[in-house]
From TrEMBL:
Keyword field contains Membrane: yes
Domain of life: Eukaryota
UniProt keywords, alphabetically: Glycosidase, Hydrolase, Membrane, Signal, Transmembrane, Transmembrane helix
Catalytic reactions of this protein: Hydrolysis of (1->3)-beta-D-glucosidic linkages in (1->3)-beta-D-glucans
Similarity comment: Belongs to the glycosyl hydrolase 17 family.
Enzyme class: hydrolase
MF (Gene Ontology): glucan endo-1,3-beta-D-glucosidase activity
Annotated protein name in UniProt: glucan endo-1,3-beta-D-glucosidase
EC number annotated for this UniProt entry: 3.2.1.39
Amino acid sequence: MPSNRFAMATSSFFFPLLLLLLTFSDLFVQTRSLNFGINYGQIADNLPSHSRVAALIKSLNVTKIKLYDSDPNVLSAFSNSDVEFIIGVRNEDLPSLKDPSNAQSWIQQHVQPYISQTKITCIVVGNEVFDYNLSQLTVNLLPAMQSMYNALVNLGLAQQVTITSAHSYKILASSFPPSSGVFRQDLIQYIQPILSFHSQIKSPFLINAYPFFAYKDNPNQISLNYVLFQPNSGSTDPITNLHYDNMLFAQIDAVYAAIKKLGHTDIVVKISETGWPSKGDPDEVGASPQNAETYNSNLLRRIAQKQGTPANPSVPIDIFVFALFNENLKPGPVSERNYGLYYPDGNPVYNIGLQGYLPGMTFDSKSNVLSFNFVVYIFTFLLFTWALSRQ
């Protein structure tokens, strides 16, 4: 009998402890994960399979993914998930998609087969089209957007999927102070009708905004703390008297100001890309793992707090971080291949506190959250086994 009483006492002690440890582990994961969007680029030859990426995204608690195409393998891998997808139309397809029949065929091929099981919510028609200064792209952007939207209407999908395009920050002629934000004069003839289209169908205006570029080009005049969301004196807009403690929020409000100057106050601005490289060429000042970690961790904290910008405090920022993985085949400077939160093997490039697990990954010391949870589960399993053996 004494041994039975000891076993019962042991069980009564260790089972609550086991539950407590498991609960603590789950809470740890939940508090370290955030709901945010992320860009899933695939310009690389060493990325994990789409099914493994789907498992990683689930473990990260990411609720939105933006693609630069409409890869059927990705869309199929995420079937029956809660992840919302923004898919993309390639720039070179714009001239053909202004034709209504081609636009409808595109929707029938790239959206209809998947939308019943994968949450496709938006199509980005072209990416940074105006940067290329190619007339065949510039003049066909809006017609392609319109044809794609009309195809959605004809196919009964316009309530589920919206149409937009993503623009680089170079479309602004002025952005500081934020209230002086204005689009380039040579682009207004194209942007004005695009804004009217957004207003008509109630779709967002997407902008790719990188404070890194501004700092890299002028590190002696721009405060690093200001661009990294670190404590700083900030700046005050002399026209609105609004105070800004970081550059990204100032950039967003500059876009709002530019849109307002063209007569619209009913269009929401969303950030389709922002990020910070962990490595760069010698002349890419500020590209480092430390700065990338600081920028993205502080950005995710602002997202978690559902902060709005000074000019739009009641509208929480809606942001897609660039990018999920380092992409080793991207052209351009070294930084272009080093924006990823993760290496292709699933290990984090730096620690921003996200719990993420890529099936089949090799653990390293950077995976602090994973290591913590692994230890907790092993410990509780051993406790559970030991308690049972004593009965």
